[in-house]
Write a structure and sequence with these properties.
By secondary structure, the protein is mainly alpha-helical. The chain has one domain. Helix content is 70%, strand content 0%. The chain contains 16 helices and no strands. The protein has helices spanning 10-36, 47-55, 59-83, 89-121, 126-129, 148-155, 173-192, 197-219, 222-230, 238-242, 244-262, 271-289, 300-310, 312-330, 340-363, 368-391. Helix 3 (59-83) packs across helix 9 (222-230). The chain is globular. The two termini are 40 Å apart. Residues 384-397 have low confidence and may be disordered.
Length: 397
């Protein structure tokens, strides 16, 4: 595959950033509504309530968007490296682990800080105890999940495999999925590409062993991640490029329609079916986006897209313990009923979550390249020096 197949125009890159940022924002507002407000079945059926609950319903769906985008962006880096002849497991591991850990480790510590603080100040609040309040909400005993072994398991991406998610930070479930997708894809790729049969058999055995370890809970979502990979192999065509604006509108309508349907007319379908419909419709949207040409206009919308994308990973990792603490601090055990006042509170809490995540991102996610460079010097310094001296005709004892 030619290297140019993996290139992105500025406009395409902006669209992908906007999708990533909006997906993270969708998770945030979903959790604000879910943690603070009564369930849809417990509120009056008004047009305002319908609009509010619809707009704040897409948190889980956003994770499917993340899976497809992740498959596209991670596989792009792998495939480009292979085409350029510079693929290595060590470089790949450093690139992925620096990206994950620069946010995850501080995120786990912040989870501990917020949860211990909340349990100290509000030990009997339902959001920390999980006791029944007469209505169904899946609050749980947060204290029971603040164990050192669970912390370690989450740091090793074993949540939902060997341990539960740490403390109140339920969204961490998808990080273990992402990590093991990062492992599975290059193993699978190196099993299939030309090479010695011994090497391919070894990679094939590794793929099987990892698949057996993570189990069906993770594997069932791997094809969604692979949809992102498929974006680089489905040929782009002149018809889509010439009609990209119209087809973009069609693809957005299709994606939006399936999002709405998954929470209405097909809401009784098994979740995995709905997840795949969302993933496939987003694949279609992303495929059209890869045909967009030109340079994006600047302005506030571009700034918002870039800013949200730059902190999207941090926002996903750190927002829930912060929201749970606020839930205990500003609201009683009973869930809110929607009103002008409570919706205003929800907007303010969402804005606070964005500001909080942005501050954490400035100290973590924004430093990814610095951490990556340090890891390269620390773990690859000897290898780099050896390569440099070999090129100069020297030998090393």
């Amino acid at each position: 595959m030619p290297r140019g197949a993996f290139e992105l125009t500025d406009r395409q890159s902006l669209w992908l950033d906007a999708m990533r940022g909006l997906a993270a924002a969708a998770v945030l507002v979903y959790h604000v509504r879910y943690r603070f407000f009564a369930d849809w079945h417990e509120v009056p059926r008004t047009a305002l309530n319908f609009a509010f609950y619809t707009a704040t319903s897409f948190g889980h769906d956003a994770v499917m968007v993340f899976f497809v985008l992740s498959g596209a962006l991670i596989s792009r880096s792998i495939l480009r490296a292979r085409v350029a002849g510079r693929w290595s497991w060590s470089e790949y591991a450093i690139a992925r682990l620096s990206r994950l850990y620069v946010v995850l480790l501080p995120g786990l510590l912040l989870t501990l800080l917020w949860d211990v603080g909340g349990l100290t100040l509000f030990p009997d609040h339902v959001v920390y105890t999980g006791r029944l309040t007469g209505a169904w909400h899946d609050f749980f005993d947060v204290r029971s999940q603040l164990q050192p072994t669970i912390f370690a398991g989450n740091a090793l991406f074993l949540q939902n495999i060997l341990v539960p998610t740490f403390g109140s930070n339920v969204p961490l479930w998808s990080l273990s999925f992402e990590f093991w997708f990062y492992v599975l894809f290059p193993l699978l790729l190196l099993t299939l590409v030309p090479g010695s049969w011994r090497t391919r058999c070894a990679y094939g055995a590794g793929t099987v062993l990892v698949a057996l370890f993570v189990g069906t809970t993770v594997l069932v979502y791997f094809p969604l991640w692979l949809l992102g990979v498929a974006l680089w192999f489905v040929p782009r065509n002149d018809f889509t490029r010439r009609n990209s604006s119209l087809l973009l509108l069609v693809a957005l309508t299709l994606f939006g329609g399936i999002l709405i349907a998954s929470h209405s007319v097909i809401s009784a379908w098994p979740l995995i079916y709905r997840d795949y419909m969302i993933g496939i419709s987003f694949f279609v949207l992303a495929y059209v986006v890869l045909h967009l040409d030109g340079v994006p206009h600047g302005g506030f919308s571009t700034w918002c897209a870039r800013t949200l994308a730059a902190q999207s990973y941090t926002l996903y990792v750190v927002h829930i313990p912060f929201l749970v603490f606020l839930r205990a601090a500003v609201a009683g055990d009973a869930q809110w009923q929607p009103s002008t006042m409570t919706m205003t509170w929800a907007a303010a809490i969402s804005a606070a979550g964005l500001v909080y995540a942005g501050a954490v991102a400035a100290l973590t996610e924004a430093r990814t390249e610095t951490v990556r460079a340090w890891m390269r010097r620390t773990f690859l310094g000897g290898e780099v020096a050896l390569v440099a001296m070999t090129k100069k005709g020297r030998t090393v004892a």
